[in-house]
Write a structure and sequence with these properties.
181 residues, 5-stranded antiparallel beta sheet, alpha+beta, 6 helices
Amino acid sequence: MLRKITCIKNIGLFYDATHSSHDFAKVTLIYAENGRGKSTLASIFRSCATNDANVIRRRQTLGCINLPVVKLIFKTDNKNKPATFENNTWSPSYSDILLFDTDFVDKNVYSGTTINATHREGLLEFALGEDAVILKQKIDREAKLVADKKQEITNIEKELSLYRGGLEVIAFAERMSEKSG
C-alpha cells in the first residue's frame, strides 16, 4: 500500500517537490483545482504500478534537462519499503496501485463508439452500492416528474397568453377570479 510521497522532481508542475507529511490511507481521494498536478500524480502512480517509464518520460517538466525522479514509500508486511524512479527505471515497481481517472475510464468504460468529455461528465453522477443505486433511481424519477410538470406549466402559460391580453399570469388569474366571484 502506498504510504507516502517523499520526492517528485522534474515531472509536470513538480519541479522539485520533496517530503509529504501526509500518509495515504488504503483508499485515498486526491482533489484540487484544474492544473494543480492531479493527472501528473495519477501518471506517476500508474507508471509505478505498470513499471512503464514512458508514462513519466512523457510528463517531464518542460524545458528541464534533468531526468525525472520519484521517491515513494510503500507499506508491505508492516514494513516501509521505498520505490524509486531514477534513470528512467523503477526500483522496484508496485502493481497493487489502483486508479480511477480518465485513463481508467478510457480503457475500461464503453458507452458508444467513443468516450469523450460528455461520457466522463455522466460518470460524475454514478451511484455505487445497492442502496445508492435505488436512491439515485428514485431521485432521477422525481426529477423527471418535476421537469414534466414544468413543461406542462410552460404549455399552459403559452395557451393562456392568447387570452390574457399582455397581463402577467398572476394578474390574469386575479382578474378571472374577480369576474367569477
